[in-house]
Amino acid sequence: xxxxxxxxxxxxxxxxxxxxxxxxxxxxxxxxxxxxxxxxxxxxxxxxxxxxxxxxxxxxxxxxxxxxxxxxxxxxxxxxxxxxxxxxxxxxxxxxxxxxxxxxxxxxxxxxxxxxxxxxxxxxxxxxxxxxxxxxxxxxxxxxxxxxxxxxxxxxxxxxxxxxxxxxxxxxxxxxxxxxxxxxxxxxxxxxxxxxxxxxxxxxxxxxxxxxxxxxxxxxxxxxxxxxxxxxxxxxxxxxxxxxxxxxxxxxxxxxxxxxxxxxxxxxxxxxxxxxxxxxxxxxxxxxxxxxxxxxxxxxxxxxxxxxxxxxxxxxxxxxxxxxxxxxxxxxxxxxxxxxxxxxxxxxxxxxxxxxxxxxxxxxxxxxxxxxxxxxxxxxxxxxxxxxxxxxxxxxxxxxxxxxxxxxxxxxxxxxxxxxxxxxxxxxxxxxxxxxxxxxxxxxxxxxxxxxxxxxxxx
Length: 459
Known about the structure:
By secondary structure, the chain is of the alpha+beta class.
């Protein structure tokens, strides 16, 4: 199976910033084609507002220009934002013949490396997804639930009673440990700590660090050089773990994802890319989603009471509804992107091939026409209603590119919710909602979902 894809080229972290850039051009509309209207602000302004605050900028542009509008954003160029739920669904479920994902996700190549399943289309994507998918089947996930519970209980035991802290940071620490243990199979405490430190440096790429994507020469300068050195350290440690797993005579009996990824003797670089793909797609998103889950639930006492009533039921449907409702009203990923491989009609506009289209998950998840007048409200009960109307719910994307770890993430969030509430009583530090802000590609609570542990409970 691995012979269906070429051998992955191993490159130093610094070199990945050179030669990665997608072909940028501004397609011209042909007969019967046109671009929707949009602001005339300078490219720098539109770029800054899109990258730093699109969760507030795009809704304002939607009010001014309608459900479909055009922006100019570096380093992509012209892009079309679509907000109608039916258009978001069309793009999410569309095939690579019209809606390929690869070129849009080349933006992640410098972090991950070339060949990530998130940046492949067609036959290469099918082969790579087939390699990785078995690790996320329901039966395998059920087999690691006890590990998730153990790690969550250990994390909660470290929370100081009476002190206020940002839940996002605690969730990041927990979800990283879950990945290191469940995905990589590492248990020895010192190795876990070293990996956590190295991988955190990759995950903590800041806004100014993104300048390396535009000017790769910065990788040899001051603070950017330190970032690249951290990325290289993470690469080296991943290769060490891959080598360690290859030598393990009991590898076939191990339940971790890394052991499974080594089946068929793939090259080390491919496995490193796969591990980093899982790390970047499954760590920050699940951590932020879990923090939002408590931020919303703790400010809705009736929903909290209902969750507490079902804690002893491992299959409580209301707890599952809380997870889904959190992912709906507080989208950790605000949008996804496609570059059209063929002309298509979206939002009443015939767009030419080559157009970058960024569908807004945030708009689709809060559309009053499909979710009702209470679309902005946190109401888990809506997921338990009989025969709900057709709605667009795509927190993990859709179609052939739906996130491989979607079930894993939802299960982990549910386990975290149940474990935390069984061990401690927590309250928000203030009654006011926390404001959603963009942190790179993730929409996070502005103050980190700050909470206070009131008291410890029996197990």
